[in-house]
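User: Please predict the structure of the protein below. I'd like the answer in structure-token form so I can feed it into my own downstream comparison script.

Assistant: Understood. Taking the following sequence of 304 residues as input:
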Amino acid sequence: MAQDYPIGTPGEKWDDTNKQQWLAQQEKQRDYANDVIRRIDHLREQFDVETYGELIYDDKTFPLFVVRSRNWRVNNPTVLVTGGVHGYETSGVHGALYFLETEAVNHLSRFNILVAPCISPWGYETINRWNPDAVDPNRSFVSDSRAQECELIMTYLDKHQINPDVHIDLHETTDTDNSEFRPAKAARDGTTNTNWNIPDGFYLVADKQRSEPGFQRAIIETVKPVTHIAPADDEGCLIGAPMVQEGVIEYEAKPLGLCMGMTDARFVTTTEVYPDSANTNSVECVDAQVAAVRGALEYAAKEL
């Protein structure tokens, strides 16, 4: 169903005035310092915590953190977990933190672990997909990125020569994709929006160039006892992409500028939780994210 958006002129791309109109409508709805930084501080006894940059938007400064294994071993494979690339996707942020608080210790002997729990803190506070410049970070992991959120984490990885073997990027698909974000994107780009069917359940987006079907299947099987897996729609698709196996679709990660395409990790995936389902709740969504990371590491440990 096409949907009009209250900013801009249909068929015309937004100019700077339109973007400022959009930005003026965004309000803080939750607190990054209380929800995220406070929990990161509690991890300092067991992990190294580093600030890899800061975002400055108007009068607000957001420090950006990575949490990493204290005893980094050169010969161990490295796993990267990213959350909050889309700040509004709550279980991605809290799933990354809860993984550190509960599950990560079980894998420290086998892996170097690096977690960036909240790449887009302004988006987290305003419950937004974009950054204040109306740029989608998860389409901006490219060499000439227009998103500071992406440039800073990519610079950190490059500076420290961190080349992950495993990368799990934690996301959600929500009802607001259809009610707000897809209509806003169409308005911004001067195109016509057609909403998609939102899958009811957990699914994965694999990189078509590094699909690793066994890896994706292992994650799905680990998540199944925690929450339900999304069925395909009547056309055998999830969000318009063909389902290549139960709960798995594929995208071209690097050409699209997706977060999961920013490294050359052999094992890579993007998780998608549906928190608006009548068959789940916020706790289960976070648990599903942690289960996904666990399934990924258990599989990779046998292969690396």
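That's the full token string. The mean pLDDT is 96.
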